[in-house]
Amino acid sequence: MARYYLTGERRFLPVSTEITGYTCSALVYLHSVSCDKRYIDAALRSARFLTRIAWDSVNCVMPFEIDPAAFAYFFDCGVIVRGLLAVWRASGDDEFLTCAIAVGNSMLRDFPGAEGDYHPILALPAKTAEPRDPRRWSRSATCYQLKSAMAWWDLFEATGENCFREPYQRVLEYALTDYRDFISRHPDQLGRMDRLHALCYFLEGLLPWSHEKRCADALQLGLLMAGTFLRVIAPKFARSDVYAQVLRARLYADWAGAVPLDRDAAVGEAEALAGFQAADSDPRIDGGYWFGRKDGRLLPFVNPVSAAFASQALELWHNREQVNRHLLI
């Protein structure tokens, strides 16, 4: 799956292993609500691309893109593990569990930093850490990494192997000390909207431990922060995936008994999110979700992750039936 479709140029960006991992999770979720066999067949094809083509079995690493295989991302690996586990649960095929374990072990082995955190990016094939940039959240080891670390908790649940339990808890500890001023560290509103996207990854990563008071408190404060910043910044710049993530986090936190649903906020977020769906004669656009809106004008990108997040968020909102955390895209 490509990262974006550039609508103005009618061109896809290169295939991304991370976006393919998200696709696996999305297709399994869509199959769970529709029972349409086409979704599970497509999920199997996507997962086999990851296991049989993308996974570098010689160097035991999952590259960010395969042409060329120049970098590996800690965050992307966690997304891929969760996508493979979703297909494994749906199909029972151990090929996907085996590769998920291998990618999880690569995260443990290749990404640790000197300070006890995890490097965001490695240069391949040497697996040397790329320089970090505190102004760019994707090049930093901050609270957003908790969603990726959630893959270790999922592996612990799938295998019973304690080697996957402690690393999730370690990332949880430093994420809980990092999230409160995460958004305000960026000086301008556009950058803060991007950080809202990353903060929502932190909120999603809290869900396995939402029963623990510190995590429930962080979910409550994080949702308050996210909703407030979103309302303030959206007139200037809004991302559809942020609306979807905040709405999903509200629903899952409510189902977990951690944070009661703020219905008024959720109604507004669902209505705003629906406004990003595209209707177009081009089948590559029709039904998808525009990435964002700046100064009132839609940006010319249809993003598969935005479409997956938005579709799930609105389905969860309209059906209101509790959905297992493992099906969170």
Labels describing this entry:
2 domains, mainly alpha, Glycosyltransferase, 3-stranded antiparallel sheet, 329 residues
Which regions are unreliable across 5 or more consecutive residues at pLDDT < 50? none
H/E topology pattern: EEHHEHHEEHHHHEHHEEEH
Q: Termini, distance in Å?
A: 15 Å
Number of strands: 9
Tally of structural domains: 2
Instruction: Summarize the biggest pleated sheet.
Output: 3 strands, antiparallel
The side-by-side strand order for the widest beta sheet comes to 2-1-9
If helices are DSSP runs of H or I spanning 4 or more residues, what is the number of helices?
Answer: 11
Average pLDDT over all residues: 95
Shape: globular
> If you compute it from the alpha carbons, what radius of gyration comes out, rounded to the nearest whole angstrom?
19 Å
